[in-house]
Each structure stands twice: as C-alpha cells, then as structure tokens.
Amino acid sequence: MLTISEISKSFGGRTLFSDVSLQVNRGDRIGLVGPNGAGKSTLFSLILQTDTPDDGQVNLERGITLGFLPQESEPAGDETVVELATAITPDFVELSRKIKAWDTTHPDDIDPHDHVHERFNDLDGYQVESRAKNILKGLSFRDSDFDRPAREMSGGWVMRAHLARLLTQEPDLLMLDEPTNHLDLEALLWFQEYLKGYPGAVLMISHDREFLNQLVGSVIDIRHGKLTRYRGNYEDYLAQRAAKDAQQLAAYKNQQKEIAHLQEFADRFRAKASKAAQAQSKLKQIERMEKIEAPVADDATVGFSFPQPQRSGFKVVTLKGVDFSYGAAPVYRNLDFQAERDDRTVLVGPNGAGKSTLLKLLADVLKPQAGERVLGHNVQSGYFSQYRTETLDMSRTVLDEASDTPQRVTEQYIRTVLGSFLFRGDDVFKKVNVLSGGEKSRLALVKLLLNPPNLLLMDEPTTHLDMASIDALVKALKEYTGTLIFISHDVYFIRALANKVLHVNAGVLTPYAGDYQYYLDRTKATSARVALTAGLSDARPAQPREREPARSAPIPGVDRKEQKRLEATQRQARSNERKMQQQLVHRLEKDIADCEASQAQLTLDMENPETYAKAGAAMHLNRELMGVQQQLEKLTADWEAAARKLADMGEAG
To answer: How many CA atoms lie within 13 A of 575 on its CB side?
Structure first.
C-alpha cells in the first residue's frame, strides 16, 4: 500500500536519509525507533506529502486513506467532543451539520432535493456516532463529556478526542506519533487491545517499549541516514541488532587486521627491487577491497547517580480521616493512607478515580476539607507533575536554572545530568522561555533529581522522554534511597520500579503487597474466582431430581429392571463424585480466605513500629509473609482447577 523508493533528504547540510527504501503492506504493524533527531518525524512528513524528498519517490496505492495523529494538536474550536470524534471527513461534517440544522429548524438554505439523508446513509452516518461514543468511552471519556465544547478541555483530552476520530474513521494506514503520551494506564491498555484488532496497517513512533512489544511485528531502526528493518517486536529488535553489530564489528576487525598485514608488507618491501612488484600488488589489493564500516555507536547515554537524601523515619507520610471534594463533587471520604520508608508504590486505576488528587494531597499541593496529612520524622517531600512548570524562571538559561540547587555539585556534573535528559551541547544555553512544554517538563525533572527529597511524588515522569532517557531515570530511581510514590502509563517503567501497587477507584484504595505482575495475577485470579463462582451457582441443580435424566437405550442381555438399577447406581456414583468435588471447592475457598486473613494480619504486624524494636522480628515476619503469599498463589491455582472440574460435572450431569 506504501512504497518508499531510494529517497534522500537533507537539512542544512545534514543528511537525514541517504538512498533508503521501505515497503508497508496491508495488516503491517511497524514501529519506528531511533535517537532523537534521527528523522522519524521527517519520514512521517514525507509519507504525508507535507514535505518532499531531495531524491527518490514516495508512492501510495490508489484509493488508500491515511490517518495521522501528531504529538501535539491544534487548539480545538467550537465543536463538541463527540462532533470532533465524528469529524471523519469534511463531507461527513457538512452532511452532519445539514441534518442537525434540518432536524431542528428546517432552514430555507437547504435544498430538499439535495438527498442529504440518502448521502448520509451511504456513509453509514447513523452508526458513526455510536461507534465514536464507544471509542471515547474506551479512552476514558464519560457520557457527560460528549456534548462539552472540546476547547474547555485540556490539550491531553483534545488529543484523545482526535485519536477517537482516527479510530472512528479507520484509515487504511494509521500513522501515530507518540500516541501514548496523553493516555493514562487504563486508557492505554484499552487502546493497546483495540489496535490488536485494527483492520488497517499501523505505522507508529513510540518510546513506550512495552507498547511496542505488545503490538508490532517489525521494527524500523532509523539512524545514521539509514533504515534497517528487523522482524519481531522491540525485544526481538534489540537482540537482532546487538547480534548484527557484533558480527559487523568482528568482520571489521578481521578486515582491519588483513589491511594492516598487507600494508606492513608493502611498507617493508616497496623499496626492495625484488619485492617491489609484490608490494605494489598488496597495495592494489587493499584498494580493491569493499571496506566494511565499523558499527557506529549511538550517542552515549551518560549514567549518573544523583545526590541521596537523608534517611527518614519508618512512617513517611500519613493521611488520617481525609475528606476532599472539588466543589460539590466528593473524591474522598474519611480516607486513611500510610506510606513507609523504601516503598516504591505505583497508583493505578481508571481515569478520574482520584490518583492525581491523592498524589497532590500527599504533596500538600491540595488541602483536605477534613482530616490531616502528617509527615514522618525527617521527611521532606517533593512533587513532580508533567504540567508543573511554573516553578521555572523563564528568564534564565537551562544551565543557570539547573544550577539553582542547594546541593554542592559541579557544572560538569549538572551538564551530565542535563545531557541524560536531552539537553546537549549548546542546548544548555537556551532561555527557558523558548523551550517546548516537553523540554520544560524535563528541566523540572532534572531540578528535582539534583536536589531529591526523601519522599518523591511523581505524576507521569516519563512523558516526553526517549528510551535512553527513561533508562537513565530508571537507573537513578533504582539507586534512590528515599520513598517513591508515582503514577505512570509506562508499563516498562512500572515493572522496573514498583514494589507495591495501590488501586484507586471511586474513593476506595486497595493495596497489593507486591509488584505489578503480582497485582495483575491477583486481580485476574479474583475476577476468575467471582466469575466461576457465579457460573457454578447457575450450573448446580438445587435437587438432583430437578434434572430429568435422558432415557437410555436398552442394554442387550439385561432386563429393564436390572438396567434401571445400574442406571441408579451410576447416577449415585456421579452424585457422590460431584459432592466430593463441591466439598473440595468449599475447602479450598475456606483455605484461601484463611490465607488472605493471615496475609492481612502479617501486613499489619509489618506496619507496627514495635516490630522493629525486636531484633530479627521484622525479618521473621517478612519470611512468613512471603510464605503465605506463595501458599495463596498455589491455593488459588488449585481452586481454579477444582472449580472448572465441578462446572464440567454440572454440565455433564
């Protein structure tokens, strides 16, 4: 459907592409990766024909439709959210306007012979709004948002509405530039599943490696003026690229050794008459070689370790009986929460559930209407929001602003940290007021890391970071000795850091004393248990006699009376087996409940400061808690198997 043939493109003497080609077919799922500035967005502009190549051609199959989601969209106009989501073509928008006007006022300027309704029907118009609303709900819009003017919403929500428009339109080739930047975790996971069944081809630029791993079937690596295609997902790409670079490096070294040997012979014997011809032959042999290039390393991502904060008390921050509302809309009622030293807690839950509000209450950015926030001994909190750039001095340079820290650090060290977050070379001398929104967010993050508190509260810290910078942030936070509570839609980032999960929904906090995978496993097991239990209650007959047995065929050589006795014996055997299986399911359910109660008690004991006054008590409790968690996982698996077997018995009767 798309063919790029031998294109080249340069800007200001710098070559972005040199004689590169690419083929995109129907059903392809392709990820574009590469360092910042390598040309990913430029390649998109060439495909969209908003820019032209210096050489080569970009050809689209006739009739192919393109849909493009940029990183940032234009400000919304007067249209509502649902009108924006249904604006799939200019013709469709005009027909929708005419129908709405006709249905409400019967204006004179609409020709009754214009066949508006027929044309609207031909475009499946009456189904478009329904499809758009379902997609908007998947992207976390509420029904009450549909008729709101889009301009009243933040830029991130407007981007979601544009994404809904593209998914409603279903173009043949969907082009996405960092589509996950403005999504929370719940919306991202919905979007990820939606794209798995998308009927068209998808070409995406993304720094979210988990998103790429879940979706793409090939990766295009853009760097040093070339496009290299790797089959598989992002992890496959990393492995293949490492192997390719290793092979190329080995071949390069072998060739260099051979060249050095030939050159040495020529240098030694070129002045000797009897060997001069051989020496000249060696030089010509070097000239005829097809030179192997050394693999070019990426711009080095400079690792750094930021200054560590002072040690806090065991109880870091506590919310006691907190009430909080936005106007008449309550968010929390009588909320209790406590974070402990060394926690790495990720807040998850649907959009609008109160995750950011909880983070702001913990940071003292929002004040509760009732209850209190209590900081523990020696605790200093720091809050980072991707939108909180008002703390920056717009008149300073990037370097001056980063240097404004109470920590005694060198300019070279500050430049190292800035470089890890994409401020390289002369970028550090830019004025803050000319930076993009993403650059300002990254600078605010650098300032926080240069003077970290021992309670770090972070809202979507990876937005606008490339993969190398995310790796640098992960490495720094793994070494961080304070307490971390964060919100993120980046599953890789969550998996790398979280040791606890707090699910937030409708003002209710549900803690999970394990990492993100533990949270997924527990919620999946709980959902399965509820569903299977409900199914079993439907499948089990209240009385065996309520199930009318099928009349069996006569058994040769056995009279009817004996046959009935055999059938009764078989029914009794099946009934006994079913009862035994029911008893096993009930026993496992009781064991699971007892195990969960033990887990809850052990967790409370771990939270008791008196535990840490006894030598070895905390270590003993921690080992016991791990044992209970392992036992709970085994019991849950046994219960699922037993419940399925019982359900099969109910069906077999």
So the answer is: 13
Picking from 517, 464, 594, the residue whose alpha carbon sits closest to that of residue 177 is 464
87: nearest Cα among 127, 43, 132, 42:
132
Q: How many CB atoms lie within 10 A of CB 629?
A: 17
Q: How does DSSP classify residue 579?
A: H
Contact 322, 334 (CB under 8 A): yes
Q: What is the pTM of this model?
A: 0.68
How far are the Cα atoms of 97, 425, 447 from residue 301, in angstroms, in the given order? 52, 14, 19
d(CA 335, CA 349): 17
DSSP letter (8 states) at residue 80: B
Q: What is the mean pLDDT of each run of 10 residues along the chain (653 residues)?
A: 90 83 92 84 90 90 90 77 84 69 55 60 73 91 88 84 92 92 87 92 92 94 88 92 88 91 86 82 89 70 69 92 89 93 92 88 93 93 74 88 84 86 86 80 82 90 80 87 93 93 90 89 63 43 38 54 69 78 82 80 72 72 77 79 74 51
Sheet holding 483-487, edge to edge: 381-385, 455-459, 483-487, 344-348, 500-505, 508-512
* Alpha helices per DSSP H over 87-143: 90-105, 116-122, 125-138
Residue 155 is inside which H or E element, if any?
helix 155-169
* E-only strand ranges, 93-235: 173-177, 201-205, 218-223, 226-231
Q: What are phi and psi of 305, to 5 degrees?
A: -125, 115
Cross-strand bridge partners of residue 458: 384, 486
Which SS3 state, helix, strand or coil, does residue 179 take?
coil
Q: Which residues contact 465 (CB under 8 A, 6 or more apart)?
A: 207, 421, 422, 442, 473
